Prior knowledge:
Elements: E1 10-16, E2 29-38, E3 42-47, E4 50-52, E5 58-63, E6 68-73, E7 82-90, E8 93-101
Antiparallel strand pairs: 1-2, 2-6, 3-4, 3-7, 5-6, 7-8
Amino acid sequence: xxxxxxxxxxxxxxxxxxxxxxxxxxxxxxxxxxxxxxxxxxxxxxxxxxxxxxxxxxxxxxxxxxxxxxxxxxxxxxxxxxxxxxxxxxxxxxxxxxxxxx
Length: 102
């Protein structure tokens, strides 16, 4: 994939998609993926449509230089199981990928 600088933009794309993870109660789970796009896209993680932001048990990180993004869930319990999705958006488009916590 070539990167295009200047006036032309590039819609977001996945370099690496998140993969399903196994839930271990009381443990920590990390979903990670890598994205590209010009301008650098914004990243949103959701569970069942609800936005997840860095807070009590969630930590969201995004390195714009490399496009690597992570959702880290600590102190996991059974209710954390389910479908998580990552939404990647810039002015040229939006993509999303869903992934299971089993």
